[in-house]
Write a structure and sequence with these properties.
196 residues; single chain
Length: 196
């Protein structure tokens, strides 16, 4: 069955059509977006594809079958979201207040005598503040492992991701690390506020 036919069923109120559409394009969309924007972060691509599908399912009337295929339309929507995220990230980096050691260098495990010394000193000074962003015991265990320089497998196990493939672990660990870094930066910029 064509996706356009499934789209018509979705408009008619068939909820199973939504599942079939998502199953049909979920693997294809990230690949197409990666082809269009090879320099994009895989996490950004994944989040953009998820957001695009959710927006489509919430309002399927936005797609007009007379203007092209559903896959092409969804791909373009996801590409636009990735580009927006990349522009937003560049603007945020340009305006962001430094918070000490570059969190990206910690995340990437960048080494060197000066970087390692600065990293160790920063972790000692801000460890408790960074650990405070954890909302669950798994996040806390993950942060402790990450800040102690544990291997990816140990970090993934702390999050309960040991059963995943190494690639899936890398992606999930990266997403959670990015989320926790954003929380940390937000708290540093807004010390008087408590984010829910």
């Amino acid at each position: 069955m064509l996706l356009e036919d499934l789209h018509a069923q979705l408009l008619a109120g068939d909820n199973q059509a939504a599942e079939v559409i998502c199953g049909g394009v979920l693997k294809e969309l990230p690949r197409l977006v990666r082809i269009a924007i090879p320099a994009a972060d895989p996490h950004v691509i994944g989040a953009s594809v998820d957001d695009t599908l959710m927006a489509y399912l919430e309002s399927p009337t936005r797609f007009d079958p007379r203007r092209g295929s559903l896959v092409r339309w969804l791909t373009q929507c996801a590409i636009n979201r990735v580009r927006d995220a990349m522009r937003s990230g560049r603007r945020r980096l340009a305006h962001e207040t430094p918070v000490g050691v570059d969190l990206a260098s910690i995340a990437a495990g960048i080494t060197g005598p000066e970087v390692e010394q600065e990293r160790t000193q920063w972790i000692q000074e801000h460890r408790q503040e960074f650990l405070a962003v954890a909302k669950t015991s798994r996040e806390l265990a993950f942060l402790q492992a990450r800040l102690d320089g544990a291997e990816l497998l140990t970090q993934a196990a702390a999050l309960g991701l040991a059963q995943m493939t190494p690639q899936e672990q890398r992606q999930q660990v990266g997403r959670i690390w990015d989320l926790l870094c954003r929380r940390f930066r937000w708290r540093r910029r807004h010390p008087h506020c408590r984010r829910p």
